């Protein structure tokens, strides 16, 4: 206890029931507490408290050592120094304050270095912003500026004396760009609104013309409206489609009335692409009965399948009945070609035989192939069910394709039998 009192006496003392910290550096003696029991206990309490101050300083040094952005700890250091000179404890504060002074010097040098580097980066970003703001494509320019702004926000501060100037220059470039952008789109929207209003006026006038008593004058005017429509230019696709449907409806109503008044019988217009699909289907249907030339018909059907896909992709709607006709005739040709190719191995001179013998041979072979493929399909389905593959798109596709092939074989088989019955009944 005597040693503790002697050690505490270096840094503090008791007087009139109070505990004082001796002055150091430029700081005078300062009251830090009161004596509750004995002076020795009071001094020991404040000596023990000094370890708290030491721990705070050591913790700060550890945090700075581990941190990537060390400069951010300068404020914390300044706050800690202020709290140290006001801390209620007995001990040697001078080495702690000197350590903080040295760390502050290092941090300020580091901050200065970083500020110089940050200034270089920000000046480069300013130049990039100037170039990006000149890009004529508004979307591309906006994306470039937003990317630059992200880099700007990730870049640390510069010296306070020029902080406002640098930030102001960057902000002005962005503000000027987005102001011009707003003005451009405002003008663009104004023009679009004018176009929409003009088209709407054409629609309304077209609807009025269908009630006109002078159909000849109305006819001339509606033709003029159609020419004016073409000069308007693009508006948003959804609105364009909506207005065009109304305009076309008004035109159709007018021309129906005009044709009735003039006694004109209008012929429905057929899309030339649809007509091509009809012609392809009809041609294949005519080729089907020619059994001797079925291989050539199969090649043509393959080529037409490719053309059908290309043309149908360009047509909005195709009659389902026409599509089914085309698919059916192709399937028939392919199945007939396959049947005759299989038969040709055993009956190379099939076409030279009487029609009755041809039909009997084709019926037997088709019946055999149909049953064989049915059994194979059943086995495939069982295996798919067993392996939980029935939801797989490829498996489903294969099953549907095989079912269609079997169905077409059965159709041909029925046709062969009917033809044979007709010949035998004659």
Kindly describe this structure:
- The chain is mainly alpha-helical.
- The chain has four domains: 114 residues, no CATH class; 72 residues; 82 residues, no CATH class; 74 residues.
- The chain has 13 helices and three strands, in the order αβββαααααααααααα.
- Strands 1-2-3 form a three-stranded antiparallel β-sheet.
- Helix 3 runs antiparallel to helix 4.
- The longest helix is centred in the middle third of the chain and has 50 residues.
- It is elongated.
- InterPro entries: DUF349.
Give me the number of helical elements: 13
* Biggest sheet strand line-up: 1-2-3
Termini gap: 139 Å
Shape: elongated
Quaternary structure: single chain
Structural class: mainly alpha
Approximate helicity band: over 70%
Would you spell out the secondary-structure blueprint of this structure?
Blueprint: H1 2-11, E1 12-15, E2 18-21, E3 30-34, H2 39-66, H3 74-85, H4 93-132, H5 138-154, H6 160-209, H7 215-231, H8 237-262, H9 272-287, H10 294-312, H11 320-344, H12 355-386, H13 393-425
Antiparallel strand pairs: 1-2, 2-3
Helix pairs in contact: 1-2, 2-3, 3-4, 4-5, 4-6, 6-7, 6-8, 7-8, 9-10, 9-11, 10-11, 11-12, 11-13, 12-13
């Amino acid at each position: 206890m005597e040693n503790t009192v002697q050690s505490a006496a270096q840094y503090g003392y008791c007087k009139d029931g109070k505990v004082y910290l001796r002055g150091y550096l430029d700081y005078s003696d300062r009251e830090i507490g009161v004596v509750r029991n004995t002076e020795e206990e009071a001094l020991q309490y404040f000596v023990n408290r000094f370890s708290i101050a030491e721990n705070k300083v050591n913790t700060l040094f550890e945090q700075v050592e581990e941190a990537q952005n060390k400069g951010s700890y300068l404020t914390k250091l300044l706050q800690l120094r202020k709290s140290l000179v006001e801390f209620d404890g007995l001990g040697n504060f001078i080495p702690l304050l000197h350590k903080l002074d040295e760390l502050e010097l290092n941090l300020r040098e580091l901050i200065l270095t970083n500020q110089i580097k940050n200034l270089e980066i920000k000046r480069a970003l300013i130049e990039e912003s100037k170039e990006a703001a000149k890009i004529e494509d508004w979307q591309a320019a906006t994306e470039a500026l937003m990317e630059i702004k992200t880099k700007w926000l990730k870049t640390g501060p510069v010296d306070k004396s020029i902080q406002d100037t640098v930030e102001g220059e960057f902000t002005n470039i962005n503000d000027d760009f987005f102001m011009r952008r707003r003005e451009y789109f405002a003008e663009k929207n104004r023009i679009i609104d004018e176009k929409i209003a003009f088209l709407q006026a054409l629609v309304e006038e077209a609807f009025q013309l269908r009630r006109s008593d002078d159909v000849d004058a109305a006819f001339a005017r509606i033709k003029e409206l159609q020419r004016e429509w073409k000069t308007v230019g693009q508006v948003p696709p959804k609105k364009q489609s909506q207005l065009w449907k109304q305009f076309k409806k008004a035109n159709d109503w007018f021309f129906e009335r005009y044709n009735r008044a003039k006694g004109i019988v209008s012929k429905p217009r057929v899309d030339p692409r649809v007509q091509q699909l009809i012609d392809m289907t009809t041609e294949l249907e005519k080729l089907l009965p020619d059994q001797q030339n079925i291989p050539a018909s199969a090649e043509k059907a393959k080529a037409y399948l490719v053309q059908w896909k290309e043309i149908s992709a360009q047509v909005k709607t195709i009659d389902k009945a026409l599509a089914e006709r085309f698919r059916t005739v192709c399937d028939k040709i392919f199945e007939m070609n396959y049947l005759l190719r299989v038969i040709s191995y055993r009956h190379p001179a099939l076409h030279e035989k009487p029609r009755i013998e041809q039909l009997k041979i084709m019926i037997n072979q088709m019946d055999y192939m149909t049953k064989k493929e049915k059994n194979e399909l059943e086995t495939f389905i069982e295996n798919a069910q067993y392996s939980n593959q029935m939801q797989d798109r490829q498996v489903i596709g294969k099953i549907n394709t095989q079912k269609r092939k079997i169905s077409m074989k059965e159709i041909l088989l029925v046709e062969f039998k009917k033809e044979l019955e007709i010949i035998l009944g004659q």
